[in-house]
């Protein structure tokens, strides 16, 4: 999609993308998203609790149990600024195995989110050698070598990326053969009409207001809610995962909570 | 007739006229009957024996989700034809999940029907431990695959060996062959039975049992087109399931006691079957005699 500038010629036309329900030039989306997350970083948990009525903790638990990592799994958790998945992963490994040697690399494009992850990981009783942090764009993990991770997870981050297909290609590149891609994200289409209706009302009428009252930031929450609606549907995302080269089992995704969110999975085999 | 399903080979007896018509067709198709709704789609025996007929004649629209049927011109087709399909088919089709499951069977005696077994098998095949995620139901997928694999192996082993035997001998031979396939895993089978008994897995396990007994009767040459079709399969399902259960706790050398148990059950049924049909004949005779006597006394019956 392109827009023409005022002069009407398209020498300087720029590609556009969606930012919530607005149309913005592609180049700007990253900055705008960055601002959103800089604003919500300190209250990220609150934001997630609002968006999902606290159920996101259950989803993330299910996500890690489904991954069921081995004693020496190397995980790259992208857009994992809050540290939720990384912490869950380390806890699972230590709880399940006697002497595990897991490792997780938390990647985020936003420094403030990464600092949140850093402080939370430091407060855990696990050795520092089991995690590290990387400031990088998911669309181009240039400092990550190819074929280097067992599993790649991206939880509630992929809808904020400008080019989903680039994220998926990078995911494919950094995974070892046999590697597993898992994506947990809000889904735009629910499987039950009544849930869809209730969720719509809640998303557009309640969440931004609460955001305004508690965080004095209606716009960020408005964006977050709108971005879910603009996200590709489960079938479309599964197609994109296949296009990136992954092998997908069955239909490729599992709906959680009647399709309020979904886990997409692909294998590099 | 778009009920074509590549399911079992014998016809449901509910529609005799159609059955007669279908019997003349090269492939025995059958309509989805109440009891068979849970069948997992798989190969017909005639297809396993005649690959060419599948590639040239199969044009059924409502094909299964198995990749084996979805693209008959795929280069993998004839090799996939011979190998057992994975419960959840991969897209794009690839033989790797099936290979991992096949390898996992060798880890079952040591680690059971678990995600751990699948992890170890994935690593043994050169992949990673998290690659077990290919099988979203974990051990259940492995059991599903194993049951399908055993059924195919049984059919393979029996082809050509059933000539000249009587029906009940054929049934016995099929059961023996199928039970022998359980030998390496029998110590871990009780765990599998527990898993198969979970409500969410019951359709899968019942489907496999139903398909197994149907195939055994087909191989034994069953051509019944009435209620016998159901009673034969129900009886055999009960016999087979109870023998398998017996086998899990059998400590006799070479499972002699199990095969003796099977023998006894099959003989019982034959005797009982004969007795029931004798009882039927007797009741028939007694009723007709009673009617005749009463009619001679002057009582009027409709039809007299």
From TrEMBL, chain A:
PROSITE patterns xref list: SAM_MT_UBIE (PS51608), UBIE_1 (PS01183)
Biological processes per GO annotation: methylation
Keywords: Methyltransferase, S-adenosyl-L-methionine, Transferase
Pfam families hit by this protein: Ubie_methyltran
InterPro entries the UniProt entry points to: SAM-dependent_MTases_sf, UbiE/COQ5_MeTrFase, UbiE/COQ5_MeTrFase_CS
GO MF term (any one): 2-methoxy-6-polyprenyl-1,4-benzoquinol methyltransferase activity
HAMAP family per record: MenG_UbiE_methyltr
NCBIfam families (alphabetical): MenG_MenH_UbiE
Name of the protein: 2045_t:CDS:1
Source organism: Paraglomus occultum
Automatic annotation (TrEMBL), chain B:
Gene Ontology annotations for the cellular component aspect, listed alphabetically: mitochondrial inner membrane
Biased composition (Low complexity): 65-85
Residue spans of biased composition, Pro residues class: 86-95
Keywords annotated in UniProt: Lipid-binding, Mitochondrion, Transit peptide, Ubiquinone biosynthesis
Boundaries of every Ubiquinone biosynthesis protein COQ9 HTH domain copy: 99-119
Chain positions covered by the region annotation Disordered: 56-95
Pathway(s) this gene product operates in, as recorded in its UniProt entry: Cofactor biosynthesis; ubiquinone biosynthesis
An example Gene Ontology biological process: ubiquinone biosynthetic process
Top-level lineage group: Eukaryota
Keyword Transcription regulation: no
GO molecular-function term, one example from the UniProt record: lipid binding
InterPro entries, sorted: COQ9_C (IPR013718), COQ9_HTH (IPR048674), Ubiq_biosynth_COQ9 (IPR012762)
COQ9 C-terminal domain ranges (all copies): 202-273
The keyword Mitochondrion appears for this protein: yes
Compartment(s) where it occurs, according to its Swiss-Prot or TrEMBL record: Mitochondrion
Alphabetized Pfam families for the sequence: COQ9 (PF08511), COQ9_N (PF21392)
Free-text function comment from the UniProt entry: Membrane-associated protein that warps the membrane surface to access and bind aromatic isoprenes with high specificity, including ubiquinone (CoQ) isoprene intermediates and presents them directly to Coq7, therefore facilitating the Coq7-mediated hydroxylase step. Participates in the biosynthesis of coenzyme Q, also named ubiquinone, an essential lipid-soluble electron transporter for aerobic cellular respiration.
Family named by the database record: Belongs to the COQ9 family.
Protein name: Ubiquinone biosynthesis protein
